[in-house]
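Design a sequence for this backbone.
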């Protein structure tokens, strides 16, 4: 299933074979990140199946095997613990593992201590009530602290990278906004200049038309003035001729 994120099968009376089948199902599972199998009857078969599953499962972050008799049948058969050690060495996702009260013993504690030195993801390992040597416990605790510190540094670096990327993105967006605003202003200025040119052209056309109108009116006045002057001249000439003619007639009558 792809909808289950946490699966709790604690205190279900599961046998070692049942546990092995459950762990086999994890090979292709991409959703379960927390698996609790505490207080059952799990052992070597479950650990071997889990070792194989963890090679292809990169989702699991928490596994609890607490209060299972992993080595209760034999304190010298370390096959089960070798599988757990392999899980610790190869996992790239597991951050928490509970082996609390699993009857592992000092030999198993040494194997776990050796394997955790090659692990960089585990930050929590519950290991109480397993009769481990203090030096092995100290090795494990030191490595867990180192992993925590490294992961804290990694998280901070990731946060810094994310913040830097966000800052860069904001700067790019701001630069793009500035560029678009600059283009908008340039376009506005271009349109304003075009409108001014059009207005100047319209004003020049209007002035030219007005000048033509004034010139036409002036020409018409001159023409009317000339016509009036010509008419007066003709009238004056006719009057003068009439007077001369009348004067000539008067002289003849006197004689």
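Sequence:
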């Amino acid at each position: 299933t792809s909808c289950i994120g946490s699966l709790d099968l604690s205190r279900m009376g599961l046998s070692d074979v049942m546990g092995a089948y459950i762990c086999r199902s994890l090979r292709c599972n991409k959703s379960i990140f927390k698996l609790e199998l505490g207080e059952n009857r799990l052992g070597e078969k479950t650990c071997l199946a889990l070792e194989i599953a963890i090679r292809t499962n990169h989702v699991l972050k928490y596994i609890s095997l607490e209060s299972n008799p992993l080595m209760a049948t034999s304190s010298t058969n370390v096959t089960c613990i070798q599988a757990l050690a392999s899980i610790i060495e190869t996992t790239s996702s597991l951050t928490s593992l509970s082996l609390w009260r699993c009857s592992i013993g000092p030999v198993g504690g040494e194997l776990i201590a050796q394997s955790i030195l090659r692990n960089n993801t585990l930050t929590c390992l519950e290991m109480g009530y397993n009769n481990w040597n203090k030096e092995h416990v100290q090795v494990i605790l030191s490595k867990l602290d180192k992993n925590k510190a490294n992961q804290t540094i990694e998280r901070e670096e990731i946060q810094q990278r994310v913040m830097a990327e966000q800052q860069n993105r904001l700067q790019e967006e701001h630069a793009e906004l500035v560029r678009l605003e600059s283009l908008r202003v340039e376009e506005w200025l271009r349109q304003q200049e075009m409108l001014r040119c059009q207005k100047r052209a319209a004003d020049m056309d209007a002035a030219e038309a007005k000048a033509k109108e004034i010139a036409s009116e002036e020409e018409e006045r001159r023409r009317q003035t000339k016509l009036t002057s010509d008419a007066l001249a003709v009238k004056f000439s006719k009057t003068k001729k009439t007077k001369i003619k009348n004067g000539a007639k008067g002289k003849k009558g006197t004689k």
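The longest helix spans residues 134-254.
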